[in-house]
């Protein structure tokens, strides 16, 4: 897809934390720089993988500002700004715009279950109107987590009512038929569809999607970058196979602590295991298993990162 603001591989970035569980901006920025140097075109911060719901508004602003202050270009950052109410959501979107971000990822209001499309349309109408424009809205379709899906009809209504405001969607449903339906219905008008699942990257690019925003890109972005650059052919196919294997490995345990374990072992930095409750660190058997699975996938050592630690 041409002219996609975040076209390509975007990592749903882990949020580094200090021992007291406050944001560790130096560690997180170093990881973000590594991602941009190893296959990532953009960075989705403070999404599900970034544990956004575990951070307050002031902390979320601090994280975005801290990354930019440490040299991460605002233009490559897509912050998650969705909350359960539209006033906080608007505040976070306006803050992201003020920092120079080009787009934000917005969950639906997720506390009240089974809202109607009319109710969701009214909610997003408030968000878009109160935000005042100047930044692209990306919808976050993750019904397994939010329990509030975006229907094709709702997306179509928003695009018609607010032309240019809603720029795309991250589909983390894991259902490729739904991603394809969004591409078929809206991509011709410039609507950017991003897979939240690594295994669909090559397919969605071929079908006219914009790329991916994935958790496992924290560890497999090198191979995602190859798929995005090559698209087809033996090298792209081999890289996609690594994406498939690493995604399977990452989801064989609790995803967020599992990815933290891989980064911790790859860097030799135990600080990456720090996580906010209700998430917990992996038990040793699980940690050993996910590390072995990444090794079997051919992903260890991670290119340019932690060769010494990986060899131990």
Automatic annotation (TrEMBL):
Top class in the EC scheme: lyase
Pfam families named among the record's database cross-references: DHDPS
Keyword Zinc-finger: no
Sorted UniProt keywords: Lyase
EC identifiers of the protein: 4.1.3.3, 4.2.1.41, 4.3.3.7
Residue runs in coiled coils: none
SUPFAM superfamilies: Aldolase (SSF51569)
Gene Ontology molecular function: any one: N-acetylneuraminate lyase activity
InterPro entries xrefs: Aldolase_TIM (IPR013785), DapA-like (IPR002220)
Region forming the signal peptide: none
Similarity-based family: Belongs to the DapA family.
Protein's name according to its UniProt entry: Dihydrodipicolinate synthase family protein
């Amino acid at each position: 897809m041409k002219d996609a603001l975040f076209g390509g591989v975007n990592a749903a970035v882990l949020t580094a934390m200090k021992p007291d569980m406050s944001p560790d901006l130096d560690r997180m920025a170093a990881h973000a720089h590594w991602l941009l140097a190893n296959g990532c075109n953009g960075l989705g911060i403070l999404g599900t993988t970034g544990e956004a719901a575990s951070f307050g508004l002031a902390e979320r602003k601090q994280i975005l500002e801290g990354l930019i202050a440490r040299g991460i270009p605002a233009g490559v950052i897509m912050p998650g700004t969705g909350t359960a109410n539209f006033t906080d959501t608007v505040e976070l979107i306006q803050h992201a715009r003020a920092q120079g971000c080009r787009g934000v990822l917005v969950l639906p209001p997720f506390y009240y279950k089974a809202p109607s499309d009319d109710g969701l349309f009214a909610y997003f109408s408030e968000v878009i109107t109160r935000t005042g424009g100047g930044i692209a809205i990306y919808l976050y379709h993750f019904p397994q987590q939010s329990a509030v899906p975006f229907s094709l009809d709702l997306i179509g209504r928003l695009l018609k009512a607010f032309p240019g405001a809603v720029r795309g969607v991250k589909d983390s449903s894991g259902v490729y038929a739904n991603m394809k339906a969004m591409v078929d219905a809206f991509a011709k008008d410039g609507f950017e569809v991003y897979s939240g699942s690594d295994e669909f990257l090559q397919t969605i690019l071929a079908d006219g999607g914009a790329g991916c925003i994935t958790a496992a890109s924290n560890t497999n972005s090198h191979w995602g970058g190859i798929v995005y650059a090559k698209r087809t052919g033996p090298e792209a196919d081999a890289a996609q196979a690594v994406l498939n294997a690493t995604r399977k490995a990452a989801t064989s345990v609790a995803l967020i602590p599992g990815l933290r374990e891989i980064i911790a072992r790859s860097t030799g930095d135990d600080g990456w295991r720090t996580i906010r409750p209700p998430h917990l660190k992996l038990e040793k058997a699980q940690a050993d298993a996910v590390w072995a699975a990444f090794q079997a996938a051919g992903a260890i050592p991670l290119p340019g990162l932690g060769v010494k630690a990986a060899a131990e």
